[in-house]
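Why this split exists: single-chain examples teach little about how molecules sit against one another. For that reason, every record in the complexes split bundles all components of an assembly together and asks for one structure covering all of them. Below is a record exactly as it appears in the raw files.
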Amino acid sequence: MRSPSPDLTTRARIRDAALALFGANGYSATSVRAIAERAGVSAALVMHHFGSKEALRAECDAHIVDEVIGRKEQLATDSDLSSTMRRWLADVDLYRASLDYLARMITDGTDAGARLFDDLVDRTASMIDAEVAAGRMRSSSDPRMTAVIVAAHGLVPLLLESQLGRALGEPGLTPALVARMTLPTLELYTHGLYQTTDVLDAATAALAGRPDTTRGPRSDKGAGDPNQDPDPPPARASDN
Amino acid sequence: MRSPSPDLTTRARIRDAALALFGANGYSATSVRAIAERAGVSAALVMHHFGSKEALRAECDAHIVDEVIGRKEQLATDSDLSSTMRRWLADVDLYRASLDYLARMITDGTDAGARLFDDLVDRTASMIDAEVAAGRMRSSSDPRMTAVIVAAHGLVPLLLESQLGRALGEPGLTPALVARMTLPTLELYTHGLYQTTDVLDAATAALAGRPDTTRGPRSDKGAGDPNQDPDPPPARASDN
DNA sequence: TAGGATACTGAACATGCGTTCACCCTCGCC
DNA sequence: GGCGAGGGTGAACGCATGTTCAGTATCCTA
């Protein structure tokens, strides 16, 4: 599993080792000594190069942000979160360390992760705006929220990498699975899931002020979409 | 921030403290002493009740699974991941600990998290099947994958709690934001995002064997959907 | 009322942690 | 030839960790 480690700077080798271990096991579950061992150096050298474990983490964050957002030399290229993610997912094995680390950045709520997410949302919003203006996408009742949702949906393969693979009978997220996701996703984004506008209409009506009209088409079976239901469910207290 | 801790069993109080700290800071960043302090007991008592930190984690996992999947007494109720999540999200402040812990379970790839996710996928698949049979939902070219995607999309508010809140100008995920997500999500699931079937058609054609036909409607602007693009992007090697 | 189980504690244990320090090598430069 | 700067190391430091242990209080039961 250890990478053969090409002839990089020792500093870069340490950074890559940290990235892999932080990504695989998390920050606090990773010791400086483990990083040093993986990089083939002593723990003292890690401190010599980075000063502290926290500074090493910051350098990893910055490195990933550079990889994703694009570094200075190649400002022109349209490299952002979604395109980088797509590129990395195309070769999951090669980029597993970066993918794992990136997923942790986004879920851990660090500043760097927030920057990446905000950038993704902004780009998604601009893209949708342009497509709507060109008549290729529908406009939404809440464009900002729609951009956030679409952006967040796009992160799903990153965040649920292991779950997606296992739930579909393969170990981890294979390139075949990534390819297999394309068509259903586009079907969803082209036709939606519902045949009729009943659920949407009921929700619109409910949110417009009338909390209850016919109660027929909405609460039929835990709501059509499994995670959106306009009626407030009763809260339940904790247990013993 | 500390909860006033109602009159629970000491054992339950310790478990709740562990749940909150594990959820907020992660397993290895949480010390047994911190858990003990939060529960108002000594560290030794934590060991007395649970044997080890790892066993305490297992008990937390089991407790959340019980909360989500439903415990023995109430087998009949249709309590699953999505409905429990919805219920918890309706009172984010009250259930923050459970929500954070649950999010970690699902992303950390533990067995318990996998069980929850698989259960969610199965229920989503059944729901879609039933709705399709009733003529209320469209059938997909890949029903299993569609179920996985819809299930995963539903987990987004859980996994990206902090990001969603911040990206929309509020601190964390407020009930108002949860409500505000309803309509755009239903719009997406009712009408889709694309006005035409161009992108879907192009992808279908590309995946059917012809890798390139007109190249016009697909690669216009980084692809309509920001995260699905059938053409394989060129891989790039690592850096210095 | 004795006694054994149970709840609970403070102090200690061994270990691993992040970090520091003194020291060695090996260059490039004057 | 000398020499300073930087890459690199092993050993150690102080500390926090998970866990253990002897001991105390409290309760239930016989």
